[in-house]
Amino acid sequence: MSGQGDGRDTVGPRCLVTGATGYIGGRLVPALLDAGYRVRCMARSPGKLRDHPWAGDVEVVQGDVTDPGSLDEPLRGVDVAYYLVHGLRSGASFEEADREAATAFAERASAAGVGRIVYLGGLTPVAVPGHELSPHLRSRAEVGEIFLRAPVPATVLRAAVVIGSGSASFEMLRYLTERLPVMVTPSWVSTRVQPIAVGDVLRYLVGSARMPADVNRSFDIGGPDVVTYELMMRRYAEVARLPRRLILGVPMLTPRLSSLWIGLVTPVPPSLARPLAESLRHEVVCREHDIARYVPDPPGGPTGLDEALKLALQRVRDAQVATRWSSAAPPGAPSDPLPTDPDWAGGSLYTDRRSLDVDASPQDLWRVIEGIGGDNGWYSFPLAWAVRGWLDRLVGGVGLRRGRRDAARLRVGDSLDFWRVEEIEPGRLLRLRAEMRLPGLAWLEMCAERGEGGRTRYRQRALFHPRGLLGHVYWWSVSPFHAVVFGGMARNIARAAEKAAAAGTGAPDPVPEEAPSSRAR
């Protein structure tokens, strides 16, 4: 067990949080710490948690719910185990994988003497047979039933649309409403739904840890407003002070077409948009509010929709988004770390190297490096990056529009357009791993160093490990463009740092692609 902290030196109950790299898990951890609990986080890649502001206050252990043998150590000595893992894959096997993972987790939790399992699932419609539910909603309901039948007492919270800065549901709502003053929408926009503020979700999750031992049941959780998705869009437009939106329903838009439409307009990729859209086909409204017996409502009751939208929007505008829907890697994304030895036994590793001297301090250069992507762009040939992003979305990838969680700061595990931060050494190194659809694995490294004579040196490496013949063909087909894309990136990053140094600012603007320079090689 690789502990990084002791839960703020408290002696309260110990909670295990699975899915701590995800949207809800990353927010639940500090909420539990504030409530006086000792917290242990389980992650497949523990290094992804090291840059979170609470990392020094928790234990971090390696574990994977799909590997039962890895669960014994994380569950040892745990009083409450939070299961915040959801499979958002597609295909015939994902339901079976979720079923097996939940069953193994329940069995290992029982063997470890865990006092309670808390699971956050989806709100299911009334009187709708299981075979008519979307596969993802059906799977979440099944996982909840597995925990309720297990020997360990369970609290299963069932929520519909979660409204909070960075949530996939909020981002989908925000971008659809802001970008489309006139919308042709599927029939599910007229379906009733009961949204809930993320703050209330966290309050219920934290409060569930102290439920009496004889409580073993599910609870519907939702805010005070029951609305249609169309009304939610109109309410968002009012909160954001946008002109009134014209919304036209079109019954023939299937969930698949809806997901492609959502993927076209919003940063949410079709692979994630589809389960969100499918879950809205049926009315999802709370049937009871029994959770208030154990987790009392705050003064004034749960947060209303308008207030939840205002809070989320303000967080976005203030760049205070703690976690985003993209905090967790998308289904099928590569996770292999960069080989430490370029000549390792894994085969070919193609490399594009650039380096040049910069008339700026390493600090000025680093601010440009850490600010790359999102609204700042990639400092070279914007059209090429945009086309690559669109091509990725056309084949079901995440594309460029995930943007950044924070406009100026990055941490390990952050998504950055179609990359993810694999390693960051503040002031020196940023390494990104590609999550675009590729016939291989790809990384991009940027370094700020002290060169000879005290000058600043910028180093850049793009690496690609091909998978099969297609991977080799891919590399050689795009290599003619590297001088423009990667060479231009190196030159313009250097120019942006020099411009910032000359102006005495720490927030340089992106600069356009200019003529080649002899400094880059």
Automatic annotation (TrEMBL):
Instruction: Provide the residue span(s) of the region labelled Disordered.
Output: 324-344, 498-521
Q: Which InterPro entries match?
A: ComplexI_NDUFA9_subunit (IPR051207), DUF2867 (IPR021295), NAD(P)-bd_dom (IPR016040), NAD(P)-bd_dom_sf (IPR036291)
**A GO molecular-function annotation:** protein-containing complex binding
Q: Do you know which Gene3D superfamilies this protein is assigned to? A: NAD(P)-binding Rossmann-like Domain (3.40.50.720)
What highest taxon heads this organism's lineage? Bacteria
Biased composition, Low complexity: where in the chain? 498-507
Q: Where is this chain compositionally biased, Pro residues type?
A: 331-340
Taking every annotated instance into account, which residue ranges of this chain make up the domain NAD(P)-binding? Answer: 19-123
Q: Which PANTHER family match?
A: NADH DEHYDROGENASE [UBIQUINONE] 1 ALPHA SUBCOMPLEX SUBUNIT 9, MITOCHONDRIAL, NADH-UBIQUINONE OXIDOREDUCTASE 39 KDA SUBUNIT-RELATED
Q: What is this protein called?
A: DUF2867 domain-containing protein
Taxonomy-wise, where does this protein's organism fall, top ranks first? Bacteria, Bacillati, Actinomycetota, Actinomycetes, Kitasatosporales
